[in-house]
């Protein structure tokens, strides 16, 4: 409860124009000054420097819109009628498939959880059988460009879209599954803007960055303990998109994975795939 009030206060110190984050909405009801209010509360998330961003719309239960967030009497929020939206984690693996992906699949199978694989087109071409295996095991295939070459992908919008479409077709040829879920190589930060976003939406793409990274994508000294520590340091998140990799070199991630899954199971998280996530999750635009 106090955390909620704190977040609202943080909200009021932020400029609404800087909030671009959209994520799954949940409806919550509160009693404010002895009146019922229904909140349509977007997921709170933090992004760099531990700042909280929140996007909130609320209506009185009689559907009369309240004009501005500052009209909310903060301190008098007394009671949460129900505040128990479930904790969800989306495990995501980028840059595969590789032979190591098969070992990742085994671990996921053993723990009976499903994940989302952002695959690279040229590797789909190289490993069609592994791509197929990902799908057959019930995981979700998603698009992560064809070349993973930043210079090519980000030279213009068309190149980016062409690479995604080409990869989409490659996956379809192998699995008969058409994926519209995409992730920008390196993340969308400083690469996505409203014009580009609208183009991607015309193509029906859903875009996902992440809010926790296990850190296996950065630096050479990847050890299992550090990866585990990064991956499980989830702060206040109740919906986690965890970034991991499954290249041939990601053996440390493979070793940390069972412990990471066990940790989140103990913490009460439900494991989902990103096709079940209703809205984009993107970093703020540049
Ligand atoms: Zn990548």
The total count of strands amounts to: 14
CATH architecture of the largest domain: Alpha-Beta Barrel
Question: Which topology of the largest domain does CATH recognise?
Answer: TIM Barrel
Main sheet makeup: 6 strands, parallel
Radius of gyration: 20 Å
Give the full name of the CATH homologous superfamily of the largest domain: Glycoside hydrolase/deacetylase
Helical stretch count?
Answer: 9
Q: Assign a percent range to the helix content.
A: 25-40%
The first-level CATH class of the largest domain is given as Alpha Beta
Q: Report strand %.
A: 15-25%
Ligands: zinc ion
Number of domains: 2
Order of helices and strands: HEEEEEEEHEHHEHHEHEEHEHE
Shape label: globular
Low-confidence stretches: 5-84
Structural class call reads alpha/beta
């Amino acid at each position: 409860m106090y955390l909620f009030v704190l977040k609202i206060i943080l909200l009021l110190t932020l400029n609404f124009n800087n909030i671009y984050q959209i994520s799954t909405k949940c409806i919550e009801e509160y009693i404010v000054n002895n009146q019922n209010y229904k909140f349509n509360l977007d997921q709170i998330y933090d992004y760099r420097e531990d700042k909280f961003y929140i996007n909130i719309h609320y209506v009185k239960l009689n559907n009369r819109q309240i004009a501005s967030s500052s009209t909310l009497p903060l301190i008098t929020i007394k009671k949460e009628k129900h505040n128990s939206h479930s904790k969800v984690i989306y495990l995501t693996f980028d840059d595969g498939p590789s032979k190591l992906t098969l070992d990742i699949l085994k671990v996921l199978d053993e723990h009976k959880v499903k994940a989302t694989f952002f695959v690279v087109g040229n590797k789909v071409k190289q490993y069609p059988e592994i791509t197929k295996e990902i799908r057959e095991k019930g995981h979700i295939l998603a698009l992560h460009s064809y070349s993973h070459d930043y210079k090519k992908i980000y030279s213009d919008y068309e190149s980016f879209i062409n690479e995604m479409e080409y990869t989409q077709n490659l996956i379809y040829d192998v699995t008969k599954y058409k994926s519209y879920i995409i992730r920008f190589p390196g993340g969308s930060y400083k690469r996505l803007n409203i014009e580009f976003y609208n183009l991607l939406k015309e193509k029906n793409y859903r875009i996902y960055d992440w809010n926790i990274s296990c850190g296996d994508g950065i630096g050479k000294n990847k050890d299992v303990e550090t990866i585990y520590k990064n991956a499980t340091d989830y702060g206040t998140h109740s919906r986690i998109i965890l970034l991991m990799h499954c290249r041939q070199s990601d053996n440390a991630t493979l070793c940390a994975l069972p412990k990471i899954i066990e940790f989140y199971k103990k913490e009460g998280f439900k494991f989902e795939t990103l096709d079940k996530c209703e809205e984009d999750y993107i970093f703020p635009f540049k």
